[in-house]
Batch of 2 targets.
Target 1
Amino acid sequence: MAGVTAELRPWLAPSATGPVTATVRLPGSKSMTARALILAALGDGPSVIEAPLKARDTTLMSSGLRALGVEVDTSGEDRWVVTPGPLRGPARVDVGLAGTIMRFLPPAAALADGVVEFDGDPHARNRPMGPIVAALRALGVEIEASPTGGLPLTVRGSGLVEGGEVVIDASGSSQFVSGLLLSAARFAKGLTLRHEGPPVPSAPHLRMTTHMLRAAGAEVDESVPDVWRVEPGTLRGRTWTIEPDLSGAAPFFAAAAVTGGSVTLAGWPADSWQPVDQVSRIFTDLGAEVTRSAEGLTVRGTGTLRGITADLSEVSELTPVVSALAVLADGPSELRGVEHIRGHETDRIAALATELAKVGAGVTEFRDGLRIEPGALRGASFETYADHRMAHAAAVVGLAVPGVELTDVGCTSKTLPEFPELWAELVARS
Ligand SMILES: O=C(O)C1=C[C@@H](OP(=O)(O)O)[C@@H](O)[C@H](O)C1
Ligand SMILES: C=C(OP(=O)(O)O)C(=O)O
């Protein structure tokens, strides 16, 4: 909970000595695992989650659901079993630094009978929550937030959420919308949610939410832009098979692009709920080749790494790794459309501007992004700000720049605890 900090684990990023060629097997998508857990917890019977992500974000989500009375059996090697029970407080939920927990669990906690308290890591208290708290209040939920509108917060559930219509400004995070929709079928009147404000980022994550809701049996209408309607109804227990995490694969693909090697993500499905087209386009624009085959999804470096101009709003969580690639490219890059990532695990725009400048890049910071000019690069101490994707960015720069030392690689446990070992193995194959 707030105030508890894990011991820092400094780490020297290994440099590549030649092209990296490897097939990687990565754990399940964080976003899909989080949604499967919530939908399973609200289901009409047991669910099975095959190939879940086993990392801090999903482990804490499981613990939070258990605290609310849901049985989550995570003892299976690659198979979790979720057995719903009556949701009840009192309970305390540690959200860690997970946006998916702090935005997805309070709407479910509102369905519990009793008091549920939420808090997390020190920086979790800075992450935006105001719009989802206000929306829950407008839907009849009693909820207390900190004076700044976020964590710590207390949901005083009565066992019933009236639901109905509500307007929200979700420009700060798509997770406000996803969080409300995931529990909405259990609201007495369902939910009609209308977004008003600057565009909602991360559209593919919203589609993942509506796909998975429908797969669980919910009736969802998203035919009007920025309006979502979920009818009240039953969510069915079912088996979820989680896809390999595409965002977690990004640094591994980057290693192929930087070294002129080839990295295949094994187990990639023919039909994906993750933004594979957007990710493929970015790597292609950077100069790499992306192909799909029975072996998986492959990114092949061509020896050319081009600077790019890109609006990353749909895939904003890739900004740190794409920025690292921009540092190593043959010309300047401009990455825009991601103002809201100032509210991610850290203010990623400010953090990238500071750390990439330390390794020698020319960086201009905009309200909604960065301009990055490759420069004479050098090793440096790279602050990771408890942010797994800042660690990934540092590792990518370190492939080509000896002496990049991360202040902490332990933060990668948020979504991929085995990152340091997998990365070292990968680079050893160069
Ligand atoms: O719903 C999800 O699983 C996510 C949505 C996105 O959040 P934002 O819309 O806040 O960027 C993404 O960046 C995050 O990593 C995961
Ligand atoms: C923004 C991210 O995470 P979260 O789910 O905590 O918002 C991320 O993983 O890049």
Note: Residues 98-100, 317, 344-345, 389, 415 surround phosphoenolpyruvate (ligand 2) (CB under 6 Å).
Target 2
Amino acid sequence: MQKKNQFSIIGTGAVGGYYGGLLQRAGFDVHFLVRSDYKQIKTDGLRVDSVNGNFTLPDVQAYNDPSEMPTCNVVIVALKTTANAALKKILPRVVGEHSLVLTLQNGLGGEAEIADIVGADRILAGLCFLCSNKIGPGHISHLDYGMITLGEYRADGEPGGISSRLNQLNKDLQAANIPTQLVEDLALARWKKLVWNIPFNGMSVACDCLTDELVRNPEKRLICEKLMHETAAASNAVCRPIEPDFLAKMIRNTEKMKPYAPSMKLDFDRGNPMEIEAIYGHPIRAAEAAGVNMPETKKLYEKLKKLNPAV
Ligand SMILES: NC(=O)C1=CN([C@@H]2O[C@H](COP(=O)(O)OP(=O)(O)OC[C@H]3O[C@@H](n4cnc5c(N)ncnc54)[C@H](OP(=O)(O)O)[C@@H]3O)[C@@H](O)[C@H]2O)C=CC1
Ligand SMILES: CC(C)(CO)C(=O)C(=O)O
């Protein structure tokens, strides 16, 4: 029988705490790297309030020093991209010869940063369609959704296909009740997610509103649609085309969503740094390198940089 994968969670926040918690609940051996709430989690464990049912894990294997963590088969990166400078110290201590690294971060550029530290051939990515927040020390609130779209990373941006290691990881996540889907073309999946994140994350901050207002108000909706079209054109140039009806589908889905504060709006409202480079800077630069300008996106990028709290 195949040995069960062992997981380390780098960043026990909304995403790492939620998915890591589900993996531990399902019986996997999970090791959590924790920062500000280390003492609390060491003593009281993790609490997850979830639309799918609340649970607590009174005993979790928590660490505040990565060099004390075991090298696990799967290392899950769940820091905000704004904290990625820390990965240079963390990853060499937790990634072993045979470890895979699964990054669950938003936006573009994260895999390349990780590849510079641990090599490209061990990297998988998961795009999370999840609404989760860390609301207190060791306390996660999962509000909605949860699907992870999983793919193989390739440094040349070509489709990585569905490998056996991706299938194995998929089985483990599903065994933990995590909904997943596999994609052959991770780069295209990232651009498709940006078709939503580029308009709605930044516009919710710039206009200080939730998603419902962005699709209801004709002027704001028009800007969102322009941003979506620019993102699709960039995908076409940098990567591969996005099917034509996808943009309209994203608008329709957003119309049906409960009024929602995207992660960037939550960060802004809390005075935390926003993931502006991952969601705007990298895509704009990738598009420019492929000969495509994103003028509306650039305008929003410049506005967001001014609004970003000094760190
Ligand atoms: N939340 C969501 O629903 C979704 C999030 N995402 C993406 O997932 C990624 C993670 O976001 P999210 O979980 O929301 O962010 P959170 O801020 O909730 O979690 C990040 C965690 O990383 C910890 N951390 C930061 N630096 C270090 C460090 N040097 N050592 C150890 N721990 C550290 C933070 O610790 P501390 O608690 O001390 O600050 C925090 O708990 C982002 O890229 C985000 O865009 C994508 C889709 C949905
Ligand atoms: C898709 C969504 C809205 C939640 O997963 C997101 O990516 C975000 O809030 O940044």
Note: Residues 106, 128-131, 196-197, 201, 262-263 surround ketopantoate (ligand 2) (CB under 6 Å).
